[in-house]
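Hey team,

Filing this mostly as a record. A colleague (T.K.) asked me to run one chain through the structure pipeline before their review meeting, and I want the input and output archived in the tracker in case anyone asks later how it was produced. No errors, nothing strange. Just documentation.

Input sequence:
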Amino acid sequence: MGKTILLVEDSEDDVLLVRRRMTQAGIVNPIFVVGDGDDAIAYLKGDHIYADRNRFPSPAILLLDLKMPRMSGFEVLNWCKSTNQTRDLFIVVLSHQDELREVSRAYALGAKTFLIKPPSTDDFTNLARSFPDYWELLPNPNSKGPATNRGLTQTPEDSTKNPSVPTRGYQNDLTRDNIAPP
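Output structure:
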């Protein structure tokens, strides 16, 4: 399995949009979804239902909405900054807020990049190009070989022979309603 993404987003519409844009960008990392900051921290810690790391693998990437119920994205960032457990976590902040103070605060708390909602396919393509060690990509349809960055060397057709290989990043999703991929 590729590097896991934990998407922390309270809007199901935004979850679907992020998934769609990532798919369009050719990103196939497995995605797990939680709806608030409390669940994000529980997942990151491996607490409660998230203790089984075979079912809920530790994420390498955190896509974090800033405005959420119960606990904000900034509170999650503060927690991440305060623990060694998330030292290597690649944090991408998602927010409708494009004010400079929001961006500066997110970076100061450990975010690696900041995307304005709604993120575009190009936003995710640029992320994958800028930070290639984190993203699993489908092979470029115009190339003769596998994807250019590490990890995925099977085509979507190959994965039908081995269903444990995620082709769209939606296997093992954790969502309130088990929303189907677009």
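Quick notes for T.K.: Residues 5-161 form a domain with the Rossmann fold fold (CATH 3.40.50.2300). The chain has one domain: 5-161.
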